[in-house]
Amino acid sequence: MATSSQSEGGATFSAERYFATQPPPASLEHDVARVKEFVQRQLKEGRKVVLVTSGGTTVPLELNVVRFLDNFSAGTRGSTSAEYFLKAGYAVIFMHRQFSLQPFSRHYSHSTHPFLDFLDFDPSEDPSEASHIVVRPSERTQLVEVLTTYKAVQRAGTLLTLTFVTVNDYLWLLRAVSQEMSLLGRSCLYYLAAAVSDFFLPRQKMSEHKIQSGKGSLHIEMDQVPKILKPLVQEWTREGYIVSFKLETDPDLLIPKARQALARYGHQVVIGNDLHRRKFEVVFVSPKPKVSAGASAEDYEESWLRIDLAQNPQKEIEEDIVAELVKRHQQWIEAAGTQSALT
Ligand code: PMT
Predict the structure, then answer these.
(1) Residues 178-205 pLDDT 10s
(2) 262, 233, 241: which is closest to 334 by C-alpha?
(3) Which of 135, 211, 299, 323 has its CA 20 to 30 A from that of 50?
(4) Residue 262 Cβ contacting ligand 1 at under 6 Å
(5) What pairing do the DSSP bridges indicate for beta strands 68-70 and 58-60?
């Protein structure tokens, strides 16, 4: 397995080769049918649509999978942002790692705010014969707020949830969803907050059964996952407004890596976040207007977004991230109108 030292031996898959050699997930057709229907509905009702990807992908080491590698992400960024996009009037396709946090239910995560802890038996009844359950008074205000929004979103049909586990599920699903969303032209936004594996084990190289121990150390050579932003930007959804994320642990790498991604893929924004500061600080990196291919460092601009959690501990930085993106996306839509009026 490639760790701190990397060999040059592993293959680099192009996206075409990847999809020609790796099988689609069994649920793909069913998911695509749901996405088609959802996109048609939003088109008819004139809503903007955002695809939010959230959570980490896994890389299985065996076909009958017992062991896998995982990417770090609880799904907080994605699930929180999805709620703010819904609030801003967007329809949301929420593509997330199975069992990671989801919009609305995230407020009652089993580890930070367990569901059972805010319920009680009705105090007017004998607990041994209790037939009614009540919500603790301290929890009511928030629950009413969350439940009201959740029910309204369900009635409006503006949230579609899709699930992935492996990096293979993610890549197939992202391609299919983006192809369906391309019908929306500039009205679609991509918010790629998922933490996607950079290396994978092609199916053809996987052991069928559980890898046995007892033969000393384990050596696995992994291949590189194709950089999926490239075909996403250049082929699958040419008009979409694409926001990718960059997670780093060395703060000095954040801006150079974000600029590098923009120069390589030509999309609209990279949001850089440092692992330990991501809850209160992010940086938006984007090309200055009219930057073309071959751009240099001066052709990009950065704007930092910070919140003061000491002053306001309830504040979620995703509220401000989403507000900024909604504004930029609208400008992007209007710019196209201006361009077509000029031609
Ligand atoms: O969920 P939380 O716990 O709140 O954490 C949120 C987060 C820190 C994971 C999130 O804010 C974040 O930074 N996500 C991106 C993590 C990252 O840096 O991923 P990456 O370097 O693997 O990918 C960078 C971008 O390229 C991503 O937008 C990804 O969608 C894209 N990518 C990655 C791999 C690949 N093969 N193709 C891609 O297009």
Answers:
(1) 999 999 999 999 999 999 999 999 999 9
(2) 241
(3) 299
(4) no
(5) antiparallel
Q: Which class for 43: exposed (0-12), middle (13-18), buried (19 or more C-beta within 10 A)?
A: middle
| Residue 90 tokens, joined | 């967007």
Atom of ligand 1 at shortest range from CA of 282? 11
- The tens digit of pLDDT for each residue in 128-150 reads 777 888 999 999 999 999 999 99
Mutate to test the pocket of ligand 1, among 196, 200, 227 (most ligand atoms within 8 A of CB): 196
* 187 part of a folded domain: yes
Token pair 């291919």: residue: 293
The token pair that represents 258 in the structure block: 């974000």
Do 270 and 293 reside in the same domain of the chain?
yes
Instruction: Determine contact, residues 74/193, Cβ cutoff 8 Å.
Output: no
pLDDT band at 289 (very low <50, low <70, confident <90, very high): confident
Q: Which amino acid is at 89?
A: G
228: domain range?
A: 1-104+158-239
**Average pLDDT score over residue span 292-314:** 86
Q: Which two tokens stand for residue 114?
A: 């367990």
| pLDDT surpasses 90 at 5 | no
ipTM of the complex: 0.95
Q: In terms of domains, do 279 and 230 share one?
A: no
d(CA 114, CA 177): 33
